[in-house]
Amino acid sequence: MKPVRIVLDAMGGDNAPGEPVAGALMAAGVLGVELILVGRKEVIGAELQGTSNIRDVRVVDARDVIEMDEHATDAVKAKPESSIAVGLRMVKNGEADAFVTAGNTGATMAAALLTLGRVKGISRPALATVFPVADGKLTMLLDVGANADCRPVQLFQFAHMGAAYMERMFGVQRARVGLLSIGEEDSKGNQLTIEVNQMLRASRLNFVGNVEGKDLTRGMADVVVMDGFTGNVVLKTAEGIAEMLFGELRKAVELTPWNKAAGLILMSELRKVRRRLDYAEYGGAQLVGVDGVVVIGHGRSNARAIYNALRAARDSVQNGVLEKMREIGQEIPAKAAPGSGAGNGED
After folding, report:
1. Tens of pLDDT along 281-316?
2. What are the boundaries of each domain within the chain?
3. Of 40, 82, 170, 275, which shows the fewest CB atoms inside 10 Å?
């Protein structure tokens, strides 16, 4: 089997190029992949200088950089030679199997749609990420930011894509699919969630019904579907709460000598919990529904997060996630999905 070829945006993220390059060097020779770093050649070269496994990576020059605060669509149009654009073109042209970045999320999504296009039959791509829940399990959340506004048919497809992802990546058979809403009853929610609930009830998916926000961490579903606006708020709220809790716990441990002693006893277990809740462990979110493997990491990604994003991209390629998304596009095309209605197909 040929090694998976992954393009890494060395200029993407708040900590670029240092952390992306460091993450690539962690992965080189360990993940069994071919790594291609794309960005300003002289800058990447300076980061690689003196490293022992420099022969395990290749560098492709890209002169432009899309900054984290630039307007997505304008930046993509204005900078056709950005590291994001060049990396995605390599995937499109068959020079690489996957693209990984911790750079501007909006620009990456816009460039991916422009360069790779959507999987035929899929109305909209979705950002899909795994979320730690009870008993050491994971739940997939989608969409977490690609689409602020959604139509029922799009959430219906998200549910199928999420279930397929969990099966291919984690071996979850008959994944339990939930729909995020404000109540467990099928009649609860806004018009969007009520319509999607009805569509999922009539589908062949293992639909477990509505899931409330308080139940997300209880592992009641393997996949939870929502619009991108809601998903992004959920994800960032969870991240903020986790940071606050560990910050308060650290303060409490330092209050008295007794607390410090107890903290030392519990330290190994606390580190395990923190590690499970750390976004760096999961690498990033995959943009499912575009016709290529694209993984987008957190803007603050450190080397470990980059390493795990590269691992996730490799696993996605090896497990045939893109091929499964193409099957879903054929089996459940937006124009023929239940409740799509006239004029509600792909847009």
Report:
1. 667 899 999 999 999 998 888 999 999 999 999 999
2. 5-122+283-327, 126-279
3. 275
CA nearest 147: which of 166, 174, 125?
125
Judge whether 5-122+283-327 and 126-279 match in fold.
Answer: yes
Tokens 């609860």 found at: 188
Average pLDDT over residues 338-344: 53
Amino acid at 17: P
pLDDT digits 0-9 by tens, 25-38: 999 889 999 999 99
Contacts of 279 (CB under 8 A, 6+ apart): 239, 298, 305
Question: Measured at the alpha carbon of residue 126, what is the angle toward residues 120 and 129, in degrees to the nearest 5?
Answer: 135
Q: Distance between CA atoms of 225 and 128, rounded to whole angstroms?
A: 10
- Which residue type, as a one-letter code, is found at position 199? M
Q: What is the 3-state secondary structure (H, E, C) of the chain?
A: CCCCEEEEECCCCCCCCHHHHHHHHHHCCCCCCEEEEEECHHHHHHHHCCCCCHHHEEEEECCECCCCCCCHHHHHHHCCCEHHHHHHHHHHCCCCCEEEECCCHHHHHHHHHHHCCECCCCCCCEEEEEEECHHHCEEEEECCCCCCCCCHHHHHHHHHHHHHHHHHHHCCCCCEEEEECCCCCCCCCCHHHHHHHHHHHCCCCEEEEEECHHHHHHCCCCEEECCHHHHHHHHHHHHHHHHHHHHHHHHHHCCCHHHHHHHHHHHHHHHHHHHHHCHHHCCCEEEECECCEEEECCCCCCHHHHHHHHHHHHHHHHCCHHHHHHHHHHHCCHHHCCCCCCCCCCC
Closest CA to 233 of 296, 149, 131, 145: 145
Q: Retrieve residue 223's tokens.
A: 């996949």
pTM to 2 decimals?
0.89
Fold classification of 126-279 is Isopropylmalate Dehydrogenase (3.40.718)
